[in-house]
Amino acid sequence: MFRFLIFILTIAIIGVSVTISTLNINDVHINLHFITYTAPLPFFLLISFFVGCLLTLLFFLSAYVKHKHENINLKKSNKIKEDEIDNLRKSPLREDR
Length: 97
Known about the structure:
mainly alpha, two-stranded antiparallel sheet
């Protein structure tokens, strides 16, 4: 359900962006303190969309690598513990009387 809401929200934001860009085709001036860019509004909206997608991808990629590394470590630990349990089961019981 949450993914569906995010999908609908994304479609709505893209729809609003397309509507704004078609209504405002005039040039926009972006001042970055050292350089001033002049281009149509749809161009800047597209650039900001792709930058946001790239930053989101980098964030989730770092989280994926972290969880993958943790998963590998847990599998190794689990394998060591399973081997130890198997060795304890195979060893004969000693009675000290």
